Amino acid sequence: MIMTDSVQDLDRTPIPDSAQPGKPDTGQRNTERPDAGHRELPVTTAVELVIPVYNEEADLADSVLRLDGYLREQFPYDYLITIADNASTDNTMIIAERLAGTLPAVRVLHLDQKGRGRALKAAWSASRAAVVGYMDVDLSTDLRAILPLVAPLVSNHSDVAIGSRLARSSRVIRGPKREFISRSYNLLLRGSLSASFSDAQCGFKALRRDVAERLLPLIEDNNWFFDTELLVIAERVGLRIHEVPVDWVDDPDSRVDIVATATEDLRGIARLGKGFLTGSIPITRVRDEFVQRSRATGTGDGGPRPWTLRGPTGGLLGQLIRFATVGVLSTLAYLVLYLALRGVIDAQAANLIALLITAVANTAANRRMTFGVRGPENMIKHHAGGLIAFGIGLGLTSGSLWSLHHTVSTPTRWVEVAVLVTANAVSTLIRFLALRGMMRNKRAGS
């Protein structure tokens, strides 16, 4: 990673509360070093905006000049613009270095590997601004939205801020295909991960640097799913996410591979779901760190609140999507177990064992993921209800097998599977209604 800065030193005194309007980061210096160990880097500027780029020689100069000109004339805080070059193979890096050598508030960060998430991690981790953010190089977002984006962060009112193209008051110009994909993706997030923010992939976000320092180590993705992972984890931690309706003009020359990105996003959603289910993503520990910091510094209102299912994400549609996701995984596990057991025992015994194992796992997963229930309260009751639903499912599947074998003398293995899948679909509906009735009023935090 190579960094080129248009100023000579990065150690600068903290900015005063009354920053001059449109003041570029020109470098008041302080050579004192913080103590060793985990430390808060000194604040050197109010806001740092990162522009991730890959082979953007055609648009880079015009976009940076336009952004710098706007901030210099209209922005009330000190600012820094960082061009994060993602291993470009054209003249992007040369143009970026020229801009950094000409404009006092521009610096360049070069990475040898591609990935928007990787670029943002590197730039934000090296930043000494109070607030860090990013914009797409095409400046699709109206620049007048920058101040509404960062102001709640500078004032410590909010922790994360995002632009939203899906808010009611947003004005968006883009094709119907992209609109459909965007809305479908965010609906999927609400259903599968209980996200309550409206637009995960808008290229216009910011967060406080102290928040970034704690969240970035938890984020695995280095590409397009980085945004979603950041927001979902921030929400689970209990941080306050501020949304800004934006005026957005889509770039028709976007080079994003929609199919590859969608596949990557689905894998990311599955990984996050697994991480939350198993506890491998340390949400509670990070939340406690924020609470302790808030109490120690005397800022805020005690830190983030524990995350709970609430609003439309806890409604019937969200529950159905999450239940269906768990159900698909349970059905696949059931079929694998059934086929494995069928080779050594008869059909009825294989069905009983496979159904029992997956029923217990299904109840546990739905209790946590679909209905948001945490802790041991009513666990026995919920699993008992799940076993009753299991009994109904066993009766349906066993009866279906009995009917099949008395109707067809020697059915193939795959005919058995088809009959069982149909019977399981009916028992799944019964299970959903039963579990929803038991757990409706037992969500954690409600």
From TrEMBL:
Membrane topology: Single-pass membrane protein; Multi-pass membrane protein
Residue ranges of every copy of the GtrA/DPMS transmembrane domain listed in the record: 322-434
Entry GO MF terms: dolichyl-phosphate beta-glucosyltransferase activity
Matches recorded under Gene3D superfamilies: Spore Coat Polysaccharide Biosynthesis Protein SpsA, Chain A
Cellular localisation: Endoplasmic reticulum membrane; Membrane
Family: Belongs to the glycosyltransferase 2 family.
Protein name (Swiss-Prot/TrEMBL): dolichyl-phosphate beta-glucosyltransferase
Organism: Microlunatus soli
